[in-house]
Automatic annotation (TrEMBL):
Transmembrane segments: none annotated. This is FAD-binding protein. Keywords: FAD, Flavoprotein. Signal peptide: none annotated. It comes from Paractinoplanes aksuensis.
Length: 372
């Protein structure tokens, strides 16, 4: 019980997850401390918290004894600029990263941490060009629910040693253990960027992609009826490509992103959804009448639903289109009566993985697909 006594404090009024209050909060400062804490936690139920920007995502836990706060597990452990690689503590806020002329090309909310973005599988506008956190993650250090430290991947981009734990933990919502460090592939910071903004419909996306202007992101916002394309590169190249798109879309070029860019479309009293459909089905989804915002270039859109009926309508439309829809967040009065995940293929496999990694179901119980 030594690590519990040394690292924990009584939970306060703000220490809750989905309305479920915790009894204790711990803030380990290293992987070794985190491992000792988890090993000493015994049969306590655990939820991991980073910056708290997505702690309200997903169903409420069935039980909650201990919140493990990762914000002391922060900082740049290593930056190998010549190899375009960095090792980051899981509690590192992404908006505070300083990597010189290089960047970790992951869009995140202010205050969001590395571990939180990986655990929720979050992504933003630039996923079209750079990929998601899952694509950029090449190594990971985790503490398993039994307190054992496990590592996978490495510090080189082409690494095939061991099991790919990184992909397994990405999007697992903290149900398989505690992420303490992540290794990422970096990209050069572009010298110039411009946004081409237009009221062209989503049907313009094929024309944008066919124009070979190498867009970094293609985003749409149904509330304003606006489509915006981000172009990055050398000053001359960006100037040439943005001029071409300006004519193609009858739009205007701006150095600043639209005010809605990268922001969630829902308010606190609305239901927030993530919708994924094939590109050919994006126009139909946009014409559904719901408030949507997101990547018209990848088919990943975010929706603000007003009630359960709208959730079911959008989910059915996505499934018919060959995609899927999940509820990320919802007001307290509807959270418990919503099927937040919906039908998900491979549930039996996910249950077996959970049973193997966390046989007592102590980590984030009930937060994942099928009540995992």
């Amino acid at each position: 019980m030594g690590a519990l006594d040394e690292l924990t404090r009584p939970a306060g009024d703000d220490d809750h997850v989905g309305g479920v209050p915790a009894r204790l909060v711990a803030s380990p400062a290293s992987t070794a401390e985190a491992a000792a804490l988890v090993a000493a936690a015994g049969d306590l139920t655990v939820v991991v918290r980073g910056g708290g920007t997505k702690i309200h995502w997903g169903p409420s836990p069935r039980a909650l004894d201990l919140i493990i706060d990762t914000r002391r597990l922060a900082g740049v452990v290593e930056h190998a600029a010549g190899d375009l690689i960095t090792v980051l503590g899981a509690g590192t806020p992404l908006d505070e990263l300083a990597l010189g002329d290089q960047q970790l090309a992951i869009d995140a909310a202010p205050g969001a941490t590395v571990g939180g973005v990986v655990a929720t599988g979050a992504s933003g506008p630039r996923r079209l060009h750079y990929g998601t956190a899952r694509d950029l993650l090449i190594g990971i250090t985790v503490v398993r629910p039994d307190g054992v430290v496990a590592k996978a991947g490495g510090k080189v981009v082409k690494n095939v040693a061991g099991y790919d734990l990184g992909k397994l933990y990405t999007g697992s919502y903290g149900t398989l253990g505690l992420i303490t460090e992540c290794v990422f592939r970096l990209h050069p910071r572009p010298a110039a960027a411009a946004y081409v903004r237009t009221t062209a419909p989503a049907q313009a996306v094929p024309a944008i992609l066919a124009a070979q202007v190498a867009p970094t992101a293609i985003e749409i916002d149904t509330a304003t009826g606006e489509l915006a394309v981000l172009l990055e590169g050398t000053p001359g190249g960006v100037r040439e490509r943005s001029g071409l798109l300006e004519k193609l879309l009858a739009g205007e070029v701006s150095e600043a992103a639209p005010g809605w860019w990268g922001r969630d479309p829902w308010t606190a009293d609305e239901i927030g959804m993530k919708l994924s459909v094939p590109l050919s089905m994006v126009p139909g989804l946009i014409e559904s009448g719901s408030t949507l915002r997101g990547s018209a270039g990848t088919g990943v859109l975010y929706a603000a639903a007003h009630d359960i009926t709208e959730v079911e309508r959008l989910r059915a439309q996505c499934v018919r289109s060959g995609g899927h829809a999940v509820v990320l967040t919802a007001p307290a009065d509807v959270r418990d009566i919503l099927d937040m995940w919906g039908p998900v293929p491979g549930l039996a496999v996910m249950r077996r993985i959970k049973d193997q990694f966390d046989p007592d179901h102590r980590f984030a119980p009930g937060r994942f697909v099928g009540g995992i």
